[in-house]
Amino acid sequence: MNTATTSAAALPVDQYMAGVGRAARAAATTMAAASTAAKNNALLALAGQIRAHAGELKARNELDVAAAEQAGLAAPMVDRLRLTDKVIATMAESCEQVAALPDPIGEITNVRRRPTGISVGQMRVPIGVFGMIYESRPNVTIEAASLAIKSGNACVLRGGSEAIHSNLALWKLVQAALTQVGLPSDAVQLVQTTDRAAVGQLITMPQYVDVIIPRGGKGLIERISAEARVPVIKHLDGNCHTYVDEVVDLALAVKVTDNAKTQKYSPCNATESLLVHAAQAAAFLPLIGKVFADKGVEMRCDARAKAILSDVPGAKVVDATEQDWFEEYLAPVIAVKVVDSLDEAIAHINTYGSHHTDAILTTNQPNSMRFIREVDSASVMINASTRFADGFEYGLGAEIGISTDKFHARGPVGLDGLTSMKFVVLGQGEVRS
Amino acid sequence: MNTATTSAAALPVDQYMAGVGRAARAAATTMAAASTAAKNNALLALAGQIRAHAGELKARNELDVAAAEQAGLAAPMVDRLRLTDKVIATMAESCEQVAALPDPIGEITNVRRRPTGISVGQMRVPIGVFGMIYESRPNVTIEAASLAIKSGNACVLRGGSEAIHSNLALWKLVQAALTQVGLPSDAVQLVQTTDRAAVGQLITMPQYVDVIIPRGGKGLIERISAEARVPVIKHLDGNCHTYVDEVVDLALAVKVTDNAKTQKYSPCNATESLLVHAAQAAAFLPLIGKVFADKGVEMRCDARAKAILSDVPGAKVVDATEQDWFEEYLAPVIAVKVVDSLDEAIAHINTYGSHHTDAILTTNQPNSMRFIREVDSASVMINASTRFADGFEYGLGAEIGISTDKFHARGPVGLDGLTSMKFVVLGQGEVRS
């Protein structure tokens, strides 16, 4: 590792990053033309490398963990850093799972004969090179590398400095696996310097990097989006709503709302705001209020919700401020508001939400259709828990991130999000007249 | 018109543009939910408005034409500015054609049942607000407005100052048509000031504008891409290649190459570089050389091509410089190079090309497949003229531009390029475990 970081440090960071980018771009051409078999073999080889070097990985990881503990990092942060036997086994299995997915590359769709005689269709091809910027969890190195290999892209990975020893060790296994099957080891690059200027370079090299995928806090993503000179697959916050409509199956509404809020508090797809139609408030709020009271979920309420919920024994009821309607708590806290109509619910979500995931619970079919059409979010749901917004739950097979943007990929991003569609024209000598 | 420009001029340009953006954003919400019938009726009403006000349009247009002539604008530029009876009739017809297209909005595809019981699919919805920056031809105002209306988007149009009177007159007809059918007239905004600072504002208002579509010279598009804070659907240059492979039907190759180069010289999809496999050079080059000689097409040749083409009576043969391989001539000029292999042809195109449109002419099936897979361009063709790269020829029904980018829309961009796909989850009370 020290030799690696030293060799990186020997160059000015802009020259070093240009070299990384150039190598990735060159490898991308080979990866785009690689056979499905070669790519899958690389993934299986990587699984083997990870299993064979588990001891070494744990030893390198111990350096990061020890440094983090010494630096006084919070225990949950240190935990996320740790490569346990279970995490290592999961990394190896995930490579095998990605190998088992269908190859998205080369798919030709929508081929239609035109009046001129030519046939026009679209072919799915890799984007080229993606840059990934992430923090803490070193297993993201393997996730990103395996998705790059499967999708025929090259990638440049920039992990957090706190995981540098773990990331370097994992990356060496990726390189070994690629070499083992005759694919270019430069297809997966790891930024070997912890110099922060490297990020600034990575996001401003459109000649080498086609898209940036940041994973981390809102601050990091906003900064990268503002400064990037290439497209960014943005995952900002998830202020998800569950809306209980005028007519609803009360038992279903309680079950789904409970799951959407309390099944896990930290994911971005957990519900943060509950909207209840005035016609259901008196019936529904006491029921869900009891669930939340039992689980210690604090309720930040508007006046009408508060009037009802204050009567629930043990309920933690607090007056909501304007800011609460915007909030992504990621905690046992929920904002609660009574609305007078579906229109008001939709307008509230489009105004205060983060365009991530929002659900309507209703028995009214036209209302459900209006909701999914008019709520401007990456995922819109009818009678389901917002917690389902996830690449694996959606059947994408893998997830590189969740996009709250509308351009290119929207919602959970799987392998397809790392591809583009080019037009193919199949002719027999046609000319244009 | 003067009242309009005066009212715009009364505000500082940033405030004026913020007002325009805010109004467009508000209208976009209504447009997204508008019925297919309402949108089509607006388009038919617009066709009627254009026909009913042809005289008035010509009178306003005369102001622009007179000013352009007085300013000494080149005759072709003045011609592009002119709203003739034919151009006016075509604008009206194009609105009717867009009305006749299927509505892309609301389409739900790929709905699949997941093991958890939920059904997951994707719904096509509008992007929101697009900004369009264009020069000269005022009929683009109607093209952009009609595509915005059909796709349920709002738009902010910024035409060239040389066409301001024509654009204002056309825009008033768009507003009248929207009002006539009860859709918000703010859905199509025209920037009423010719202040250049308005463009800088338009491309840096992510809160109001979701994507920018510039149409114009490479300089304009590069400047906008560099400064924009929102995605740009970029159409840079079209250095298109036709590659004549090792085995080929010579008659087909001559016919298609001729068409690709000479059917029209100015479009971006005209072939600018001809690559010929060494095995065909002696047979093919004299044949196409004669065609080019007859049509006065200058040939910028590498040494091997020159040696053959110099023997063609009347051929204008010039030594190619390195720069010629990059050039988009848009003129009766073509670069010609002999290559030794398919690999060399692909590498040349990926190095010097502009990733727009490239064609292989061949009878060899594996070579044709390698070409369309490995050439990294928006359109790749087998045995067809590059001139086919066009939204109408591809059956998209309409074209808002051609993207040489890989992100979001690639190649000719039709209505779908102005939409995004959101995930829809249809449940019956499922929760995540």
Describe the structure.
Chain A is an alpha/beta fold and 433 residues long. Chain A is built from 15 helices and 16 strands. Chain A is globular. The N and C termini of chain A lie far apart (63 Å). The relative contact order of chain A is 0.13. Chains A and B meet through α2, β2, α11, α15 and β13 of A and α2, β2, α11, α15 and β13 of B. β16 of chain A pairs parallel with β13 of chain B.
Structural class by sheet pairing and helices of chain A: alpha/beta
The average pLDDT value of chain A, as a whole number, equals: 94
What is the topology, as strand order, of the major beta sheet of chain A? 10-9-11-8-7-12-13
Poorly predicted runs of chain A are: 1-6
Distance between the termini of chain A: 63 Å
Largest sheet of chain A: 7 strands, parallel
Secondary structure tally: strands of chain A: 16
Helix content percent band of chain A:
40-55%
Q: Quaternary status of these chains?
A: homodimer
User: What general form of chain A does the structure show?
Assistant: globular
- Rg of chain A: 24 Å
At a glance:
2 copies of one chain form a homodimer. Chain A has 433 residues and is of the alpha/beta class. Chain A has helices at 2-9, 13-33, 36-52, 54-70, 75-81, 85-100, 139-150, 164-180, 197-202, 218-227, 250-262, 278-295, 303-309, 342-352, 365-374, and strands at 108-113, 119-126, 129-133, 154-158, 188-190, 211-214, 240-244, 271-277, 298-301, 316-319, 333-339, 357-361, 379-384, 401-403, 411-413, 419-430.
